[in-house]
Write a structure and sequence with these properties.
With 68 residues, the protein is mainly beta. It has one helix and four strands; from the N terminus they run ββαββ. A hairpin with a 6-residue loop joins strand 1 (3-9) and strand 2. The radius of gyration is 13 Å and the shape is globular. 0% of the residues are buried.
Length: 68
């Protein structure tokens, strides 16, 4: 895929980010977890290299979890 810059945020705008570099993979996932999380028939995912994401605002608001 091509090298480019993506900018985005959560819905309220409290967390913003920039993704730079080559995207490794981009796909729509239709598993039950992705459908539940997105509230739609799929979730759109992008895989990028380590260090490609820069949190530009609200990093302290992030939460992390591991899927069992």
């Amino acid at each position: 895929m091509s090298e480019t810059t993506f900018r985005g945020s959560c819905l309220c705008g409290g967390v913003t980010y920039t993704i730079e570099g080559e995207s490794k993979r981009f796909y729509h996932c239709h598993c039950s977890r992705c459908r539940k999380m997105s509230g739609t028939g799929h979730a759109t995912n992008i895989m990028v290299g380590t260090g490609a994401v820069e949190w530009t605002n609200g990093e302290s608001l992030l939460g992390y979890y591991k899927v069992p």
